[in-house]
Amino acid sequence: MPQDEASKPRESKPATPTRSPWLTTPKPIKRLFDRFPLVTYSANQLPQRKPIDRKVNTLYIFTHDKDAQIDSPSFNPSCLKWQTYLHLANISFTTVSSTNHASPSGSLPFLIPASSSTSLETIAPIPSTKLQEWAIKNGSGPGQKSEDMRYEAYMSLLDNRIRSAWLYNLYLSPSNFASTARPLYITPATTSSLVHFSLSYTLKTAALAETVKSSRSPVVDVEALYRESDNAFSALSELLGDDEWFFAEKVPGLMDASVFAYVHLLLDDAMMGWKAGQERMGEGLRDGRWKNLAEHRQRIHEKYYQ
Description:
This protein is mainly alpha-helical and 306 residues long. The protein is 48% helix and 5% strand. A 4-stranded mixed β-sheet has the order 2-1-3-4. Helix 5 (151-172) crosses helix 6 and helix 5 runs parallel beside helix 9 (254-267). It is globular, with a radius of gyration of 30 Å. The model is unreliable at 1-8 (pLDDT under 50).
């Protein structure tokens, strides 16, 4: 006998969750978005100060806009090294003022090769780590690096001892930071005093970290930094001797460009604005101890920058 309907157990309905008024989109806002739905557009191209001729190789470096127009030497040793090397390799190029933030690798310089295409997306930038290889393939100047077994040892003097002293001299010397680093790297970037302070702190902190790492000591011995830099320049001067180019090569190469970059910037007071009386680094370039390095710098400057 079937059970009476009243005696059947009643099925419980699932409870409807109560919506919190804080999670509900207000009706006026909902109506607004219904009329104007959210649309995601493709990213814009990076802003440019001026149209770039894509038919010409373009090197992005630290420099002033007016100096970029006439291919004046960069005030940054790494940028100037590769700017000069491209000249030595007989590469035709133009320079553009830029910053590390614009670089795909996070540091300058980088090069955009010439292309008939107007789309930046089809052009792979060349970072500084691959510029020598690219220049060898596309230029007609110096070939592979010198086969002299001393090449790496002398290049390390530039990349370590001289660079460490340079970082201290430019960023950690209070007088030189005020007269040189700030006008070159900070003032052109922004008019905000708060951003000035932030950039100053970032540059000084990075420079200190690099010098501490290089000296392998938590305390920076300033005089030792300059002394090791002097020894490095003395070694380079002895290496060059009476030759026109390093390693007695017939044409200048990457070593010549690398030495030129530091020597030129240490001697160019007009561009760098070194504080008078604070030219501790590279004193031998001024007092004649490394006269051949100063003459080497002059040869490259007169041939490629005048």
